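Researcher: I'm preparing a figure for a lab meeting and need a structural model of a single chain. I don't have an experimental structure, so a prediction will have to do for now. The sequence is pasted below. Please return the structure as tokens so I can convert it later.
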Amino acid sequence: MTAPAQQTLAAVLVAHGDRGGTSPNAALESQAEAVRKLTGLRVFTGVLKGERTIEHALAEAATSGAASIAVYPLFMADGYFVNKVRERIAAAGLASEPKLLIPLGLDPTLSDVLVNEAIATAEQEGFDPSKSRLLVVGHGSKLGPASASATRKAAARAALARRFASVTTAFLEEDPFLDDALRVTSAPTVVAGFFFGNGMHAGEDVPEAIAETGANAIYTGAIGNSPAAAPLIAAALSAAARP
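Model: Understood. Here is the structure written out token by token.
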């Protein structure tokens, strides 16, 4: 990225805000620091729930001297929560409206990261990917189809790599539920978390489901925790910084 682009754009990374988990919002701050190093941009962070708020991050970005602001949603779908981000950006009433980029979960190259993480986890735990099922688990929602749709799209892209015996999906809040998907087969299963950070869902619900069902399964953790996600975020922000 050129020096003028660094000077004219400020970035705001927005996440939900972790509830539970071992290190709340650790993924948000880790990815923000990685993006700073990759791009040289001024990167601020905010959450929908908890501290620091989106409004606080936007205010910092607005007073940073940057001519424009790009908001990158660290969500897996353009659904209910990203709409909340839109509403709060609009309500902030900044002189120059920030540009909202597409969420991390809709980046088509994220599936490559997911597959690579799953293969690494499988090999580390002694699973043969070619004889294992890849189970991509997402949040799902009763509020709309966006979460499930984004999860299924990522799984479909992952299947194109042809590295696993099969690729399926499951959800925490809609059918097919994760517990049922884990019980349906005794085949070796690599569970890939289609979540941003290791909050309550990714850090607690998924490992508990694996333990309670006694499934022959291992877990990659949340895809948003992967260091390989930072270059995707950086690339999107670099594109936004270009005239």
